[in-house]
What does this fold into?
Amino acid sequence: MKRVRLEDVLSSESGLFELRRLLADGGVAAVPTETFYALAADPANDRGVARVFEIKGRDDGKPLLVLFSNRDHLDRLGLDAPEEILDPFFRIWPAPLTVVLPLALPIPASRGRRDLAIRMPASPAVRKLLDAVGPLTGTSANRSGASPLADPDAVAAALGAEVDLLIDGGRTPGGVPSTIVDATGEPPVVLRPGAFPWPPCED
It folds into this structure.
């Protein structure tokens, strides 16, 4: 496993090019988020998604959440949600809030489903990385059943033999995982309480 600092990747066009090529070839990277480290693959790449499941040690058919940084990414993912559904969430994002929204067609990360859990992460550096390489899967970087990992050294020790690249952003905040809300119906339903309070406070 290769290990590079997040700031070095962001400041190097060649580093970003290598990361894009890795992801296009079905590679998997461990990346920091505003909560824990995540296993990042191209959500539209069959091989990359399959490898995430292999690294996690599970293949239970559950879809993978996807991290994104701008509205254009939603078009690339094939989200099929009108502006009036999306706008309230864009008034909240970036935040540790994962939202399930409908897809026009399934993609590898959705595991045959026509909906997808997405999140715009609160970390500016991670959003900058997503701006450069596109949306990425964001499931926690740990074995199935194990605790999520906030320390890059722990990620390297647990998964280093199988992850292609560790993007070291230092220790992440950890704490509570993101809140997950299903917005495929009205009103949205909380699937997992977490770091973002739901319903949101209104001024």
Summary: The CA atoms of residues 46 and 164 lie 16 Å apart.
